[in-house]
Write a structure and sequence with these properties.
Order of helices and strands: EHEHEHEHEHEHHHE
Number of domains: 1
Helix content: 40-55%
CATH topology: Rossmann fold
Number of helices: 8
Number of strands: 7
Strand order of the largest sheet: 3-2-1-4-5-6-7
Radius of gyration: 18 Å
Strand content: 5-15%
CATH superfamily: NAD(P)-binding Rossmann-like Domain
Length: 261
């Protein structure tokens, strides 16, 4: 994989895929600022980075809030000395239909899952331009293509990420800024744990639910955050220099299958 020793990155989300991506980039030499809202989760991220002596700085920020993202970006770029990579992994996953989802939940999910991508790009792309280019990776989901019931606002945000990724890629290609999205299937993250607790059934453990979720994937298991992080690292690297405006599914064959047997 590419050498990130001269690269700087901002990653949103300090658990799940965001955490794995930050660690993966830093292990290959990048200097990383990780943005997260939960102090306990942020502390866990900082402890992991310190244990490996990685150049990761964890900042508390609600990435859906303009002023907090702007302030965090200024702090991050000051410490990093510039910006080459943005990984947008922060997300929330409410359950509900358009009837059962209340307006505040709808707006919050849109603001976190989609609005944060706008904000990090709005404040980050000018710094990338000064470096002569960069790479942005937006974490979407297979649910932006095919979806379950009772997840209306979540899937709306994931479909929006696909469209926004294409728009950003076209708008900023001239400045050598590449923008791609990654659409995972079921991956061992706090969001999947929430799904396991919600739909696992009475007396079913999270791990048992994970096994059932995994059985729906042709490869026979759920994915790991570190596997998604490898794809993110490739897309962030110079090896992906001709790759922009695309979505990459990492779903164990889930969306390749027809659900009739």
């Amino acid at each position: 994989m590419g050498d990130f020793s001269q690269k700087t990155a901002i990653v949103t989300g300090t658990s799940g895929i965001g955490r794995a991506a930050a660690l993966r980039l830093a292990r290959d030499g990048a200097r990383v600022v990780a943005l997260g809202i939960d102090e306990r989760v942020n502390a866990e991220m900082a402890e992991l980075a310190a244990a490996e002596q990685l150049a990761i700085r964890v900042e508390k920020a609600d990435v859906s809030v303009d002023q907090q993202v702007r302030s965090a970006m200024e702090t991050a770029v000051s410490w990093l000395g510039g910006l080459d990579i943005i990984v947008n992994a922060a997300a929330i996953h409410p359950f509900g239909t358009v009837v059962s989802t209340d307006p505040a939940t709808w707006e919050r999910c849109m603001a976190v899952n989609v609005g944060s991508i706008y904000l990090t790009a709005h404040y980050g792309i000018p710094h990338m331009e000064r470096r002569g280019g960069g790479a942005i990776i937006n974490i979407s989901s297979v649910q932006g293509f095919n979806c379950q019931q009772n997840v209306a606002v979540y899937v709306a945000t994931k479909g929006a990420i696909h469209a926004l990724t294409r728009a950003m890629a076209l708008d900023h290609a001239e400045k050598k800024i590449r923008v791609n999205s990654v659409s995972p299937g079921s991956v061992r993250t706090p969001i999947l744990e929430l799904a396991a607790r919600t739909y696992g059934g009475e007396g079913v453990s999270v791990e048992q639910a994970f096994q059932r979720f995994g059985a729906a994937h042709p490869i026979g298991r759920i994915g790991e955050p570190e596997e998604v992080a490898e794809l993110i690292a490739f897309l962030a690297s110079d090896k992906a220099g001709f790759v922009t405006g695309a979505d990459y599914r990492i779903d164990g064959g889930l969306t390749a299958a027809i659900g009739v047997k």
